[in-house]
Amino acid sequence: MVASFATASDLLGVGMGTVPMQIVGRRLPGLTWSGRKGIHVGVRRGDEVVGLVPGFAFDAVFDIEVEMVPDELGGVDFRGPYVHDCDGSPSVLLSWVETDPEGDIREFGRVRLQLRQIVDLFHDEVFTAQRLAAYLDLTDTADRPLIGMVRQPWVTWRVNGRRMPGIRP
What is the mean pLDDT of residues 33-57? Predict the structure, then answer.
């Protein structure tokens, strides 16, 4: 017997479209680090950083939307103002910025959340997704702002409230 798997074309219209996504960042680094002052984290929408959260906050929560559309190979592609093409992989970016008293901001690092990881982890469930979530610590093991591409175990993905068994919440 051959196993069959649903494709985007099989499920077109079911769960495809705009889907809410919540990103919850914990363990922020504080307002100062390595000579930087006024540290904040925000989510990148197009060329701007929005939703700035100060580095001393208990957590940083970003509620955004991503568009899920069928791709030409029968899978899922991600689009929208919060989705960026990073080396051919759709990603959501969190940006670390330093603010000054005049309100100017200077970006000094990014956290890259690759959306293809959701497809890899949840397979066919992605086609009917009504809610996506990512949970991650925003400091590394040395309490520095987390910068770069993050994968498990640094990020925990959920689809419709379900996380992968054996993965921390």
Answer: 96
Residues 6+ apart with CB under 8 A from 97: 39, 40, 41, 42, 49, 52, 105, 106, 107, 108
Sign of CA dihedral 101, 107, 111, 116: positive
Among residues of the chain, what percentage have pLDDT more than 70?
Answer: 86
Q: Is 142 helix (H, G, I), strand (E, B) or coil?
A: coil
DSSP-based three-state secondary structure for 47: coil
- pTM (two decimals): 0.86
Residue 119 has pLDDT above 50, yes or no: yes
pLDDT for res 48: 96
* Rounded Cα distance, 30 and 85, in Å: 29
- Cα separation, 79 vs 71, in Å, equals 11
φ, ψ of residue 94 to 5 degrees: the values are -100, 135
**In the chain, helix, strand, coil percent, each to 5?**
10, 50, 40
- Which phi and psi (to 5°) does residue 132 adopt? -120, 150
Q: Where are the domains of the chain?
A: 17-162
